[in-house]
Write a structure and sequence with these properties.
The chain is α+β, with helices and mostly antiparallel strands. It has helices at 25-52, 55-78, 95-108, 112-135, 140-164, 263-270, 293-298, and strands at 176-180, 186-190, 199-206, 213-219, 224-227, 235-242, 254-256, 311-316, 319-327, 334-340, 347-348, 353-360, 363-371, 379-385. It is 33% helix and 23% strand.
Length: 387
């Protein structure tokens, strides 16, 4: 199902109202969005009651969701907002909500189990979107109303789960582990926490990307998959169970990096033969992103794609911290932590503290922390060199 995030596309131009009451454009957009999201819940539940005759849809739809809409109407009147919510059932002026409504109705009409899962999804989306709206406002009136709506959605979520439980067991998230093989493959293994899946999906995303790619699908009760062609850069993996009713929650993510015994072996896999003694030299920045090939190799990046961000630097009270991926399992890498006060002079951070944040075959993510002390250290970086 499509995951819906808070709709921020509409621009509310008239936000100053009478009686010296003002509302920010973002708050105005969120209030009007939540009104139509509550209408979506009401309209879907009433339609599913007509289809399946299950009282929970009628009770929540005609009573609770209508009350939720009425509560948002109070905000709309308080701030003199223009409400464009259509009166007709199943109609919305926000395209994302119209698309979501149509998707949910198509699913909910398939079976009673599907319909109850639709109810669960609606309440989960409501809880998330209300939280996003509350996190972005300082308006005490809006906070009070949205908090009440969120509590109501939590109660609805419990109610739908209680009705569903005797009919269907929800899919559970697998537990994942990775293992690198000698020939550069990555073996993915997981447990099977349920007995009602039809298949498992194996997904992968590259470091710096938010997009998951499905790289494999295996049948029920299968608990392993081999990524025979892992990418050059660090990859994140996850597994999800699926059946005719739902896509289960994803496993926790695991990281892996294609294994190479040396820089030369890595170079030969990345660069064409005619490029290896020119573009593939260790000190060449092949993609012009400020990192030479040897650093791309060491930090698990792709030298043909400009690096997204290999390290994250944060200040935590009196300490400066950074974290980055580091290739493991080779003898041709030495990592050094350096600090500076002016970006001109760099000194070895002899008192740097290192901790492993995450690890997987061929790679670990290492956090480095230094005390700012009296030297007014402002910059911290990790560099790599050959032994």
């Amino acid at each position: 199902m499509k995951k819906l995030s808070l709709y921020l596309g509409a621009v509310v131009s008239a936000v100053l109202v009478s009686s010296a009451i003002a509302i920010t454009p973002l708050d105005a957009t969120n209030v009007l969005f939540i009104k139509q999201e509550e209408k979506l819940a009401r309209d879907v539940y009433l339609a599913l009651y007509d289809k399946w005759g299950q009282n929970i849809f009628r009770n929540i739809g005609t009573q609770s969701e209508q009350q939720h809409m009425d509560s948002v109407d109070v905000l709309i009147r308080t701030y003199s907002l223009v409400d464009t919510t259509p009166a007709e059932r199943g109609k919305f002026t926000i395209p994302e909500l119209q698309a979501l409504h149509d998707q949910l109705m198509a699913k909910g009409n398939r079976s009673l189990i599907d319909a109850l899962l639709v109810g669960i999804l609606i309440e989960e989306v409501d809880i998330r979107d209300l939280q996003t709206a509350m996190d972005s406002t300082r308006d005490s009136v809006i906070l009070t109303v949205f908090n009440n709506l969120q509590n109501g959605s939590r109660n609805h979520l419990v109610a739908f789960n209680n009705v569903l439980a005797p009919l269907y067991t929800r899919l559970a998230a697998p537990t994942l582990s990775l293992l690198a093989t000698n020939d550069g493959e990555i073996e993915i293994a997981w447990n099977d926490p349920a007995n009602n899946e039809n298949a498992f999906w194996v997904e992968r995303r590259l470091v710096g990307s938010l997009v998951w790619e499905r790289i494999g699908q295996v049948s029920a009760n299968t608990t392993s998959f081999t990524d025979a062609t892992p990418p050059i850069e660090v990859a994140h993996y996850r597994v999800l169970a699926t059946n005719v009713y739902e896509i289960g929650p994803a496993s926790s993510e695991a990281i892996g990096l294609r294994a190479f015994a040396s820089y030369q072996e890595w170079r030969d896999a990345v660069f064409l033969e005619q490029e290896r003694e020119t573009l593939g030299l260790p000190g060449i920045d092949a993609d012009n992103d400020g990192l030479v090939n040897f650093a791309e190799y060491a930090f698990g990046l792709n030298p043909r794609v400009a690096a997204w961000e290999s390290a994250f630097v944060t200040r935590e009270y009196t300490r400066l911290s950074t974290s980055a991926y580091r290739r493991t399992g080779t003898g041709d890498l030495q990592f050094h932590n350096l600090t500076s006060t002016d970006l001109l002079t760099w000194r070895k951070a002899s008192d740097a503290e290192e901790s492993v944040v995450a690890s997987g075959p061929g790679v670990r993510r290492t956090k480095v922390s230094v005390d700012l002390g009296t030297n007014q250290i402002l910059f911290l970086r990790t560099v790599v060199e050959a032994p």
